[in-house]
Amino acid sequence: MTPLLTVHNLETSYGPVMALRGVSLTVPEGQIVTVLGSNGAGKTTLMRTLSGALAPRKGSVRYRSKRIDGLEPDRLVRDGIVHVPEGREVFPFMTVAENLRMGAFIRRDRSALAQDLDMVHEYFPILAKRRDQEAGTLSGGEQQMLAIARGLMARPSLMLLDEPSLGLSPVLVGEIFGIIRRLNKEQGLTMILVEQNARAALDVADHGYVLEIGRIVMDGPAERLMASEDIREFYLGKAAESSRGRRRWRKRKSWR
Question: What is the pTM of this model?
Answer without folding.
Answer: 0.89
